[in-house]
Design brief:
- With 266 residues, the protein is α/β, with parallel strands linked by helices.
- It has a single domain (5-260), classed as Metal-dependent hydrolases (TIM Barrel, Alpha-Beta Barrel).
- 38% of the residues lie in helices and 15% in strands.
- The protein has 10 helices and 9 strands.
- It has helices at residues 23-35, 56-72, 91-97, 123-131, 145-149, 154-159, 168-171, 177-188, 210-219, 222-238, and strands spanning 5-10, 38-43, 46-47, 78-81, 84-86, 109-113, 135-139, 163-167, 194-196.
- A 6-stranded parallel β-sheet has the order 3-5-6-7-8-9. The protein has a 3-stranded parallel β-sheet with strand order 1-2-4.
- Strand 5 (84-86), helix 3 (91-97) and strand 6 (109-113) form a beta-alpha-beta unit.
- 44% of the residues are buried.
Length: 266
């Protein structure tokens, strides 16, 4: 029996951020997710930034209530608490206290969100997280304007242990050709560790995984697609280590090699 998909980034929790607006929308999204082959979702409402009022215990309680709703609706979908954490001062202390959530509340992986319009160095943060036995997962780097302009910054982050989560829709062109190209290039260079839906709604930015999974199969192979959509996300849900170094597969076109030079600047 094939291992189901696991989604580590989804704004399914109703009425808490810019994701599902209410229980009806959450149920509609959940039904779509099940149809896509997803059986576990780590719900990741925004924390910090514009959503500073979202607190860890409230997210935990809302996740429990959502699970009850899904079970009553007869949906075979497990939900686990988590957060899409905007990088800002004080987050390390809030992570330590449990006020800011790790993925699946396992105290192993943190989903890190940069401002969409810029990139700033996160190496010091990654080292500080590692001192707390935490691993950073960078949320949708292929959609960050700063990294789109300087993709050579991605390789050194991976070398430092930062894991990369690409949005499934990016591989399908949902966020434009630039994000699609960067997502494909990262994939071919072995710099993508997870595909996730980052779903926000049952009508726009839906929980789509199957088409993106097929696209990974086309660009690489079945083993890589299963790793990014099934096995690595399952490890996060269980609080287990995920290796930042992926096995090599078909070499990318020669012209893309220079995009991701891992030589240190200076």
């Amino acid at each position: 029996m094939q291992t189901p998909f696991v989604d580590i980034h989804c704004h399914l929790l109703p009425g808490i951020d810019d994701g599902a607006r209410d229980e009806e929308a959450a149920l509609a999204m959940a039904r779509m997710a099940v149809t896509e082959g997803i059986r576990t979702i780590i719900v990741t409402p925004h924390q910090q930034g514009n959503y500073a009022t979202n607190q860890g215990d409230d997210i935990r309680q809302r996740t429990t209530a959502l699970q009850q709703l899904l079970t009553c609706a007869g949906l075979s979908l497990r939900v686990l608490p988590g957060a899409d954490v905007r990088i800002e001062d004080g987050m390390l202390e809030r992570l330590a206290s449990g006020e800011v959530l790790t993925l699946a509340d396992r105290r192993r992986h943190v989903l890190l969100e940069l401002p969409h319009e810029l990139y700033f160095p996160i190496e010091p943060l990654l080292k500080a997280l590692q001192r707390q036995s935490l691993t950073g997962i960078l949320s949708h780097p292929e959609r960050n304007r700063g990294l789109l302009g300087r993709p050579e910054l991605i390789g050194p982050l991976v070398d430092q242990g930062c894991l990369m989560q690409v949005t499934a829709g990016s591989l399908l062109g949902t966020f434009g050709p630039d994000s699609q190209h960067l997502a494909e290039s990262m994939l071919l260079q072995g710099m993508v560790h997870f595909l996730a839906t980052d779903a926000h709604s049952p009508t726009q930015r839906r929980p789509r995984m199957q088409q993106a999974y097929q696209r990974v199969c086309e660009l690489t192979d079945l083993r890589t697609a299963d790793l990014l959509c099934r096995h690595n996300p399952s490890r996060v849900a269980r609080g287990e280590k995920v290796s930042p170094h992926l096995s090599s597969y078909s070499a990318p076109p020669q012209g893309w090699r220079g995009l991701f030079s891992r030589k240190k600047a200076g």
